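go over my protein:
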Amino acid sequence: PGRTVFVFPGQGSQWPGMAAALLDTEPVFAEKITQCEKALAPHVDWSLTRLLRDTEPLERVDVVQPALWAVMVSLAALWQHHGVHPDAVLGHSQGEIAAAVVAGALTIEDGAAVVALRSRALDAIAGDGGMVSVRLSAERTTELLAPWADRISVAAYNSPTTTVVAGESTALRELLAVCEREGVRARSIPVDYASHSPHVEKIRTRLLDVLADISPQAPRIPMFSTVTGDWLTTPPDTAYWYTNLRQPVLLAPALKTLHETGHTHFVETSPHPVLVPTIEETLDTAVTLPTLRRDEGDRRRLLTSLAHAWTTGLTVDWTTAIPRGRRVELPTYPF
């Protein structure tokens, strides 16, 4: 196989009890979750492990995003423990915070600070906006947005056939009505703020202030930025994490560049594969691999994903996944 990319999605892959079963069966995962919980503790008033074991819906953005970040970082550690190592990492929106930690550009402590403090800052723009996923190309979507050009903008270039827009709630409702009338598939994303839009400019000063103490490093594992559309060669400083929230997500262009440079396997390191279909729409010949699935967050699902990875040519260290047994000689003839 070619090179492997760990892909970290933004908000949307969460579900109640996500990955909780792995806390009891996978010591590497449990240890990393404990590290993340300790790093989050100065910034949140809830327990990560209790939250993961709970069955209540995850709704508050300042809870969902830190919890997702911790699970994705811990799942990446689990893949690496079993012998699957990334040649590059890629993050979508908030997913870039997890990608930066895995790449070594942020410590766990700094990653926890960025995800917790930034998600809390979003409260200041909550209720004023929203986001909608439109099943059209970016070019066609931009044409569709003409009547609301000053109220809605493109927030994410996800695939050749899917574009996310963000803006004022009223304008988005009008857009959805037009889409329904014209037979364009579109759905509202369950958030009440407009990430990756001018709305974020209202919290710029606050973000730069609360994140001023982070000490980022240049990544040890190559990280492709969906903010700049290029390799991240400098430490992702405070200004980067504001820009990450303000600028559109350049996912589709990033995927194409990675594939053109020999990256063939894309492992979505998340509790549910929300980006796998998007990657498949963008790259016809890439291999896409999920980690867990909604309501399938146990060891069986993990082993299935490892087996899937192995059948596609990736190296898996099975000695870490299966208890050591007694070796026996096989017959010299077919069974």
Remarks:
- DSSP finds 13 helices and nine strands in the chain.
